[in-house]
């Protein structure tokens, strides 16, 4: 039995017909940019998260750049970013004109914490940018306290966390603003690129709306140098079909995670650790194993999908050489060396989880 790394296609396929019908309606409407589908999706996604505003943009990277600028981050400012994340998190800080300051992560949860961020706060720090890595929410309570104590803005990179919760609140509703990516592999993944900025702050939302449209509210008067970065009507129509299924998919992903535990995987590898009070949406199911590379190779040979992510963390990326870390990052380095994503997805069966668990125990010679 082969076990795919991502089991998402079987849950999407039954919805293709409905997506095609809705996208066909867009096609016939003749309105492709910033029309009723985007407006409706923005309202529906904001309601799902429990926030006041959602601003649809072209992708999750632009969402970060625009959100940072809307929060007042710019040249001369520093933003504390975890060094274990997708490159775009820091890239957006640079593109907003600011300096990314790379911090360590908790080696068990893979997330930035108050303890890893605090030593890097200085007079130029303007914002904290925690990432809910692999769908596991960062400890936003303590990060909020830290941000308040130092007068900092708090932006969540929730690209991987659509559907996750912390103390009953949705990831994305926990900071001054949050950003999402609707890249196809994400938990709420569209049929192309897409992203969003969400916030309760009327001013931040209004600035983000202006920035996504060339710094203009009305196409005539341009008050800022902005971007051409809109979620388009085709994508919004597709996302509106998928959104009502997100909570169910998240439940299924959590069931898969629980099944790995029940199959005794904890005896072979370090299981993912959820932040206290959180419900991860398991964008990826990432375990720890000192023999990571051998395990990955052997699993591939027996048809079990596995992949190491962020093996070159941000402090080792040549493009960020201007922003060297200000101290050792042991949590990031150990995660980069030892972590491995195993099969995860809403359509993974109990048998597939049992098979993957059995194969892992066999490779590592654990019973
Ligand atoms: C943590 C994180 N931040 C930002 C992004 C950027 O999103 P996008 O690819 O939609 O630009 C991604 C995903 O690609 C991501 O995983």
Which tags fit this structure?
367 residues, Aspartate Aminotransferase, domain 2, 7-stranded mixed sheet, 3-stranded antiparallel sheet, 13 helices, 12 strands, 37% helix, binds pyridoxal-5'-phosphate
Description:
Helix 2 runs antiparallel to helix 9 and helix 4 packs across helix 8 (202-212). 37% of the residues lie in helices and 13% in strands. It contains 13 helices and 12 strands. The mean pLDDT is 97. The strands form 3 sheets. A 7-stranded mixed beta sheet has the order 1-9-8-5-4-2-3, with helices on both faces. Strands 7-6-10 form a 3-stranded antiparallel beta sheet, with no helix packed on it. The structure holds pyridoxal-5'-phosphate (PLP). Pyridoxal-5'-phosphate binds at residues 59-61, 85-86, 88-89, 131, 157, 159-160, 181, 183, 193, 195.
């Amino acid at each position: 039995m082969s076990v795919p790394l991502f089991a998402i296609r079987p849950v999407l396929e039954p919805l293709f017909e409905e997506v095609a019908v809705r996208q066909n309606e867009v096609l016939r409407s003749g309105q492709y940019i910033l029309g009723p589908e985007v407006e409706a999706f923005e309202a529906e996604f904001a309601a799902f998260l429990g926030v006041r505003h959602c601003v649809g943009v072209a992708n999750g990277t632009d969402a970060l750049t625009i959100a940072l600028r809307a929060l007042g981050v710019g040249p001369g400012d520093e933003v504390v970013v975890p060094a274990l994340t997708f490159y775009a998190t820091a890239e957006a800080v640079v593109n907003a004109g600011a300096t990314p300051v790379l911090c360590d992560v908790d080696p068990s949860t893979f997330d930035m914490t108050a303890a890893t961020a605090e030593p890097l706060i200085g007079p130029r720090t303007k914002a904290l940018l925690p990432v809910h890595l692999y769908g596991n929410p960062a400890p936003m309570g303590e990060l909020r306290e830290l941000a308040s104590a130092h007068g900092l803005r708090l932006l969540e990179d929730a690209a991987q966390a659509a559907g996750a919760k912390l103390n009953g609140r949705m990831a994305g509703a926990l900071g001054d603003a949050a950003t999402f990516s609707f890249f196809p592999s994400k938990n709420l993944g569209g049929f192309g690129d897409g992203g969003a900025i969400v916030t309760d702050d009327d001013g931040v939302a209004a600035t983000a709306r202006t920035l996504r449209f060339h710094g203009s509210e009305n196409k005539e008067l341009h008050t800022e140098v902005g971007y051409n970065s809109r979620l388009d009507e085709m994508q919004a129509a597709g996302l509106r079909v998928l959104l009502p299924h997100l909570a169910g998919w998240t439940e299924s992903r959590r069931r898969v995670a629980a099944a790995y535990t029940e199959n005794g995987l904890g005896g072979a590898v370090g299981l993912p650790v959820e932040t206290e009070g959180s419900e991860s949406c398991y964008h990826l199911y990432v375990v720890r194993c000192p023999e990571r590379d051998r395990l990955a190779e052997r699993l591939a040979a027996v048809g079990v999908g596995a992949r190491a992510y962020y093996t070159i963390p941000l402090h080792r990326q040549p493009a960020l050489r201007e922003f060297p870390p200000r101290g050792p990052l042991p949590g990031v380095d150990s995660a980069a060396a030892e972590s491995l994503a195993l099969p995860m997805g809403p359509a993974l069966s109990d048998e597939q989880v049992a098979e993957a668990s059995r194969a892992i125990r066999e490779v590592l010679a654990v019973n």
